[in-house]
Amino acid sequence: MKQIKHYIIIGIFFVIITGSLAHFLYDWSGNHYIVGLFVPINESIWEHMKLLFFPMLIYSAVMTFMFKDQYPCITSSLFFGIFTGTLLIPLLFYLYTFIIGKDIFILDIGIFILSVIIAFWLSCKLTHSCKSERYAFLLRSLMCILLICFMLFTYHPPGLAIFQDPAIAQTGSSSFPSKPYP
Q1: What percent of the chain shows pLDDT beyond 90?
Q2: Which whole-number Å values give the CA distances from 182 to 29, 33, 80, 107, 164, in the listed order?
Q3: Distance of CA 6 to the CA centre of its chain
Q4: pTM metric for this prediction
C-alpha cells in the first residue's frame, strides 16, 4: 500500500511537469502535425484537456505494468482517474468563469493541478477498493472514445465553444486557422 502511494505521488508530479511542458511542445516542434495530436495546438479548453490525459495515460501504462499482479484493479482505477481528471478541467473552468465572469490564468493552472491530484487520488482509492473493476469494460471504452475524439477533433473541431480559445470565443471570431495542416 505504501509503495503504490509513493508511485501515485511521483505520478502527480510527472503529470504536472510533463503536462506543463506539453503546453509548449507544439510550438517547439515547429507545429508538427503528429505532435499536435497529443499536445495542445491552441488555447481551447478541449486542447488543454490533453495536458492531463496523455501524460497520465503514459504514466498509467507504467503503473499497470509494475503493479497489475499485486493490484488487479489498477488499470480500471487509473482509467477512472484519467477520465474524471480530464473532464474536471472543462467543468471547473466553465464553473468558475460563469461565476466570476472572466478567465484568470492562475485559476486555470490551479484547475489543472487540482484535476491531476483528484485523478490520482481517485485512482489510488479505487485501486484498493476494486470498485472500478465492475465498470472495466465501460472505462476502457470511454478511454478509447476520448482518445479517438482527441485525434479527430484536434484538426477538425466541431463548432462548439469548448473547441475555441475562450478569449476569442467571447469576441465571436474563430480561433482556428483556415488551413490547420502545416
Answers
A1: 84
A2: 11, 7, 35, 32, 19
A3: 21
A4: 0.89
